[in-house]
Amino acid sequence: MDSLLRYFDMLCLIPKAPNSISTPEILKKLQNMCYAVDLRTVQRDLVKLSASPLFPIANTENTKPLRWFWIDNSSPMQLPMMSTDEALTFKLAEMFLEPLLPPSVRSRLAGYFDLADKRLKESKFEHWVEKVGVVPKNLPLLPAEIEPSVLAVVYEALLKNRRFKATYQAIYKQPKTYEINPLGLVFRHNSIYLVATIFDYTDVKQLALHRFKDAELSDRIVSVPKNFVLNDYIAQGNFDYPVDNHLQEITLKLKVADFLKQILLETPLCTNQRISQIDDEHYLLKACVINTEQLHWWIRSFGTGIEVLEPLELREFFAFEAKALNEMYQ
Amino acid sequence: MDSLLRYFDMLCLIPKAPNSISTPEILKKLQNMCYAVDLRTVQRDLVKLSASPLFPIANTENTKPLRWFWIDNSSPMQLPMMSTDEALTFKLAEMFLEPLLPPSVRSRLAGYFDLADKRLKESKFEHWVEKVGVVPKNLPLLPAEIEPSVLAVVYEALLKNRRFKATYQAIYKQPKTYEINPLGLVFRHNSIYLVATIFDYTDVKQLALHRFKDAELSDRIVSVPKNFVLNDYIAQGNFDYPVDNHLQEITLKLKVADFLKQILLETPLCTNQRISQIDDEHYLLKACVINTEQLHWWIRSFGTGIEVLEPLELREFFAFEAKALNEMYQ
DNA sequence: TATGAAAACGTCCAAGTTTGTCGCTTTGGT
DNA sequence: ACCAAAGCGACAAACTTGGACGTTTTCATA
Q: Within this chain, do residues B166 and B233 fall inside the same structural domain, yes or no?
């Protein structure tokens, strides 16, 4: 029984395919976990485990301290088993994420989606796919593809606080190689941007991940500019949607069309919104919200379905825009 | 060694907490898997396994065929271990899904997000959170909460093709109990809708999941109306965003502002889009897209940043709307 | 309420497995 | 070329496993 636990812990110590761990390293780690075992035992156990098709582990046969790893492309085994509920939720999440995340990011979770598939199939619940639909809220734009090896380096650099060397091709320019000092990742518009400084300059740049041609981890530690905080950097409007009045909260009064009432009742703008009837076809909406560019987009997207009443500033903003739009189409 | 595999398969047979499996059932299933074991052995094994903190399984002590289950609230164990890459991707997915999925749906995956957390913590990579940001594309509306027990019944009913009895409270109406014949789930606007018929009527209804007060599985099998296909039902515009001309593909010509060029280059509208310069501040975009309501939203949301040139029909549609909008604000 | 089938659980013991030890071979670095 | 470290085969002692059997408990049916 004790050995069962040891087997388990051993299997946990072994990393997935690109990485590996040597037999003596496993021994040391097991001893740290208070298993009083011999190297010979560890060797024997590994051979035994790898013989079973349940545990697809293998070693590098030609090196002398043998290095062990899990053979790739297998979806993870898991205890307790994934429930059908979880499997369904995974598939739903996959549907949601599909138009949002670039393929190389999504593919990191492919094993889990496969596991969910298997689970639903073995339960004879295959037909669920025909029973689920998504009505997208956004126009599905094509997410830009990111070179998987670049993504791996960027992930590792951010996690380990290390810089990396990379070739970046700005639009309409020749590719150039820089040493990147990564500060953070920002997702926007189905694209991923690296916020970083370059070489030893101090100005913060935004680099689209899909424009990197290659990347290689360096040994230099990341240096964070004084007072740099990613969320502040975003809030300052560095991602081309400046937050108008520094996150000012406003009391919004909108005259909304009939059909919008339903939507707003179900997914309110804020917890304390109020809706009252104006006439047969219009309702008055009151809500406290933060005056962001996203709010403007949202209001615009309903066209004549929303009329901004207050604050007056915002009404004038939209009135001006309506006038400009009308003139544009003359 | 053979017994290790048996332990593993035994653990796989045990379901999570609300469900359970009796010792004789486990015996039968193991025998089907060609394990020639005695009931006594199974009993002993289960006691042994449950004694280890690694396998939080327990039994119902007062029933006579003892029923075994995994004690809840533990995040799943998995082999091979979740890599840091996967863990990071899970956390990113969580950030994305947070404003999209209702809490009760998201909570089904909580174990995996916790696992990802643990993994990142034990790797001393805790600071990644400060290094990732999301610039939301949409106004974050509050997703409507769904009663977890209702969600469970709806999931089960859909998977097992069974009807259920439920109390539904339509807006401004008294709650009523119906027998629901579920046909499919549709996600729209951060809300989830059940497409279903009621009792033995044949008209297809849409029922918001968050308006169900309770639900209980019934034994009656679902009957699908003739020719009902969920995706067709959605495409027919039953979710209040009718697809204008039956998924007609149009060749779009837009005059777009400078800043939109960047966005469109990175996340194109379609694979064959063309962008050419008109003047210092404007570009011509050509793309073949499907003429959906989402496209209209998208165009509207950029205000004066987009002028529709072709097709003429669409231009006139927006010209008319601009005029109406301008008049509205006079 | 009696009866019987089924499951849980204790104990014994033989068969089988595990594991430390030792010795030999192979490998890689200095 | 040498040495340290790891792989590998063999062996025997120690330990674990698992079937057999008996007793007790529970639940369903007569």
A: yes
Contact B304 A319 (CB under 8 A): no
Alpha-carbon distance B276 to B256, whole Å? 10
Domain identity same for B261 and B214: no
Q: Report CA-CA distances (Å) from B256 to B137, B153, B302.
A: 19, 48, 9
Structural domain of A176: 148-238
Average pLDDT over residues B169-184: 90
Specify which residues A290 forms β-bridges with: A249
Per-residue b or e along A216-250, where b marks 16 or more CB atoms closer than 10 Å to that residue's CB: ebbeeebeeeeeeebeebbbeebbebebbeeeeeb
* A175 found inside a domain: yes
Q: Are strands B132-135 and A176-188 parallel, antiparallel or unpaired?
A: parallel
Q: Has residue A176 been placed in a domain?
A: yes
Total domains present in chain B? 4
**Nearest-CA distance from B55 to chain A in Å?**
9
**Looking at the structure, do residues B168 and B210 belong to the same domain, yes or no?**
yes
Q: What is the pLDDT of residue A247?
A: 61
Predicted model pTM? 0.85
Give the dihedral sign, CA B131/B135/B136/B140. Answer: positive
Collect all residues with Cβ–Cβ distance below 8 Å to A62 and sequence separation of at least 6: none
Whether residue B164 contacts residue B153, with contact meaning beta carbons closer than 8 Å, is answered with: yes
Average confidence score pLDDT of chain A: 86
Quote the minimal CA–CA distance from B39 to chain A in Å: 19
Write out chain A residues lying below 8 Å of B4, CB-based. Answer: 4, 7, 52
